[in-house]
Amino acid sequence: xxxxxxxxxxxxxxxxxxxxxxxxxxxxxxxxxxxxxxxxxxxxxxxxxxxxxxxxxxxxxxxxxxxxxxxxxxxxxxxxxxxxxxxxxxxxxxxxxxxxxxxxxxxxxxxxxxxxxxxxxxxxxxxxxxxxxxxxxxxxxxxxxxxxxxxxxxx
Length: 155
Known about the structure:
Layout: H1 2-25, H2 33-43, H3 61-83, H4 93-102, H5 104-114, H6 127-154
């Protein structure tokens, strides 16, 4: 149960960070519909697309995206006790930050090219801005893992 709490808390903090950044930058907030479409396409055997937005929508794609977003957050939380035995009993920041930072690679090297945005958002109009924002979000996710770890010990 501790891993589930940790992962959900970390993902929630990641999403709150996304909302804050979207307000500051005047951009749309977190939306998981297109990633949901992409996940649905993976289930059909197709991982890479030229432009996921050009793929026909699937039923409940936003729900699929949001659900898998949180499930992946929980899976990432499960890495912590694997690399740092006893972490759930005494959470420390360093392993959580490492996991948070390393997990940005999944977005850069799987999700981004899979959705048609190129490796590490290389096809985006402003790839370095996207990369910086993604890295910052994953640092925040790492901090969220630590906070989630601390909270699951209180619960």
